[in-house]
Amino acid sequence: MPNIYNALVVKGRDTIGQQINVTCEVQQLLGNNRVRAVAMSATDGLMRGMEVMPRELSSVPVGGATLGRIFNVLGNTSTTSPIHRPAPAFIQLETKLSIFETGIKVVDLLAPYRRGGKKSDYLEELE
């Protein structure tokens, strides 16, 4: 039996043959070799009888490699581009100001973000 807060991985294939890999965290021991767990991603396609394996302890890296990165609950980065990039060529620079469209109408109307500002850089990284 896993301990509370341990991670479990459910692996298998759904009814149409797609690979399923869902990580869950144990929240409660119910007895009779059963646990209650919270899934960390979508549970579409999970069925009774799928293989459940213990996962290595979750850890998040620290140090210089994590600066400027965004992590999900499993410790995976959501960005793949490096944090240091070469400067753009002088010809590519624009001097005219433009608005970064967030796609949220209320934000774009009441509090527009300037393209090239700190907020727009963060929002572009999430796209």
From TrEMBL:
GO terms for cellular component: chloroplast thylakoid membrane; mitochondrion; proton-transporting ATP synthase complex. The lineage of its organism: Eukaryota, Viridiplantae, Streptophyta, Embryophyta, Tracheophyta. GO terms for molecular function: ATP binding; proton-transporting ATP synthase activity, rotational mechanism. Its EC number is 7.1.2.2. Residues 1-53 form the ATPase F1/V1/A1 complex alpha/beta subunit N-terminal domain. SUPFAM superfamilies: N-terminal domain of alpha and beta subunits of F1 ATP synthase (SSF50615), P-loop containing nucleoside triphosphate hydrolases (SSF52540). It is an enzyme of class 7 (translocase). Belongs to the ATPase alpha/beta chains family. This is H(+)-transporting two-sector ATPase. The keyword Lipid metabolism does not apply. One of its GO terms (biological process) is proton motive force-driven mitochondrial ATP synthesis. Keywords: ATP synthesis, ATP-binding, CF(1), Hydrogen ion transport, Ion transport, Membrane, Nucleotide-binding, Transport. It is found in: Membrane. The keyword Lipid metabolism does not apply. It catalyses: ATP + H2O + 4 H(+)(in) = ADP + phosphate + 5 H(+)(out). Its main location: membrane.
